[in-house]
UniProtKB/TrEMBL annotation:
It comes from Streptantibioticus silvisoli. This is Tetracyclin repressor-like C-terminal domain-containing protein.
């Protein structure tokens, strides 16, 4: 979980959600439900959203309000 970054709120929940999303992509890929042409784009989107707290809409970044 340290790889998710120090100082982030709800690190355990973020780790679980990240793992769940990656696992879901793996299962969908294995079942042929994610087209080969779109795999890299989808993985990049997932990693960018979770790894970059400054990415708009990222659950890892600051929340509005």
């Amino acid at each position: 979980m340290a790889a998710l970054g120090a100082g982030r709120e709800r690190v355990e929940a973020l780790a679980e959600v990240t793992w769940g999303a990656l696992h879901g992509m793996a299962v969908l890929t294995q079942d042929g439900r994610i087209p080969a042409a779109g795999r890299a784009e989808r993985l990049d989107l997932l990693v960018t959203r979770f790894a970059d707290p400054d990415q708009p809409g990222s659950p890892a970044g600051p929340q509005p309000g």
